[in-house]
Amino acid sequence: MDKYIDNGETQIYGPKLRKNLDSEFVKSSAEVRRFLRYLTRLQANADKTMASAMGKSRVATSDLRTAAIEKSPAAEKARKLLTGLHKHLSSKQDIEEWDGDMKLFFPKGLTGVGQSASDLKSALRVAREGLGEDGSVPDAKKFIGLLGGAAARLKEESEKTGEAMKTAQRGLSEQSAEKKSWILRYRGIALIVEGVLTIEGRAKRLASVVPHLAVPSGKKKGATKKGSGTTTGGTG
Known about the structure:
mainly alpha
């Protein structure tokens, strides 16, 4: 009777189980109804904790996307600065105000500068070191400062992206403590419900009360493919 229950389905099956507990045992003894109300509260707490954990996970994922977006302006500014330096050096060569070696600053040419953050950081460093070696470049001091600032901004935003990635990785997984706790609560209540129904001679009603049991095996809505990290949570 074990079936897969993924994170999202906890927010379907938990509330449905609570609703069924409220409606299925209206004709049971007062003692049974009182005990089942207690179980309903336990399930409600588990559902709430799981919903909160899922919310935090969504925020973590959103933070990662935001960090990636925020990284773009610094990268774009770095590319523009490198392009500006290349034009500056070329123009000074054209009017014979500078006769240095362009390869000192751009070993593979401007088109050889990669697009990733690490490529840009490397290109900024090489260009800055070139200015340090060739003191004849007009406005060298100004460009050294600009290149240093661009490198610092790229580093800061890369660190932010890295932290966001770590946060997202710590987000809710299918094997998280919250998920395991929810499964234990849900499964335990399902076992108790089976016992109560058996005592009352209504064991066949089990699938009508425990919601995931009503879903045909292999046709469960939203089932995750094998190997995707789902968690088994059934009534055994």
